């Protein structure tokens, strides 16, 4: 009879040591940040959590999308970032600009942002706080965490509830048809980039004349 343990890949002691070192460094970095009163809004102040399917945009892409959101929202506009924390962090860096922003995010680490943070689980698309009024955002930027029609469809319910009209969706190129079907958005020329290369080609989609073409 086979020994079941044979199927479990054992990590070499070298790999384990490297992993421990990585976690230690990460802990030290986190510790350093809190002790130095670092800028909590800067990109990278919260590390990506791949288990939550989080992938940060490159600095350039985050800046570009943030700039687009501010222009689209207009003076005194309200912007909602749904599962798109790196754009949110970029928006927060633009202090003194005339707009307000909320982040709807599953990752509770973002609760450091206080009242602007709204816990969000796309499986319950309309399970939102009462003070989040329907159609109260000038633009909604959304980056559904998974490339599945179910995830897009549910996130779309949230987007449609929140937005006055304008939608900026970031998702895989393979989702083009579903994006048109569920949100009426069209693909832009602008190619978003991530700080780490993703296997899937990524694109932006909008339903209004944007600066991303």
From TrEMBL:
Keyword Cytoplasm recorded: yes
Location (main, coarse): cytoplasm
Record keywords: Cytoplasm, Methyltransferase, Transferase
Short name of any one Pfam family annotated for the protein: N6-adenineMlase
GO biological process, one term: methylation
Annotated GO CC locations: cytoplasm
UniProt entry tagged with the keyword Transferase: yes
Catalysed reaction equations from the record: L-lysyl-[protein] + 3 S-adenosyl-L-methionine = N(6),N(6),N(6)-trimethyl-L-lysyl-[protein] + 3 S-adenosyl-L-homocysteine + 3 H(+)
GO molecular function, one term: nucleic acid binding
InterPro entries per UniProt: DNA_methylase_N6_adenine_CS, Efm5/EEF1AKMT1, Mlase_EEF1AKMT1/ZCCHC4, SAM-dependent_MTases_sf
Localization per Swiss-Prot or TrEMBL: Cytoplasm
Listed name of the protein: EFMT1 methyltransferase
Organism encoding this protein: Nesospiza acunhae
Gene (UniProt): Eef1akmt1
């Amino acid at each position: 009879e086979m020994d079941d343990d044979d199927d479990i890949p054992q990590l070499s002691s070298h790999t384990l040591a490297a992993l421990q070192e990585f976690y230690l460094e990460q802990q030290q970095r986190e510790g350093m940040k809190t002790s130095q009163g670092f800028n909590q809004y800067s990109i990278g102040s919260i590390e990506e959590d791949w288990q939550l399917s989080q992938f940060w945009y490159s600095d350039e892409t985050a800046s570009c999308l943030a700039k687009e959101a501010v222009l689209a929202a207009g003076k005194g506009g309200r912007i909602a970032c749904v599962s798109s924390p790196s754009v949110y962090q970029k928006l927060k860096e633009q202090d003194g600009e005339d707009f307000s922003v909320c982040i709807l995010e599953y990752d509770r680490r973002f609760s450091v942002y206080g009242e602007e943070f709204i816990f969000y689980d796309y499986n319950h698309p309309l399970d939102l706080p009462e003070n989040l009024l329907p159609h109260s955002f000038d633009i909604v930027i959304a980056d559904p965490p998974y490339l599945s029609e179910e995830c897009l469809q549910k996130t779309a319910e949230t987007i449609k509830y929140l937005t006055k009209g304008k939608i900026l969706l970031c998702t895989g190129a393979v989702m083009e048809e579903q994006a048109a079907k569920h949100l009426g958005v069209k693909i832009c020329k602008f190619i978003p980039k991530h700080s780490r290369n993703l296997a899937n080609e990524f694109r932006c989609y909008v339903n209004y004349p944007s600066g991303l073409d």
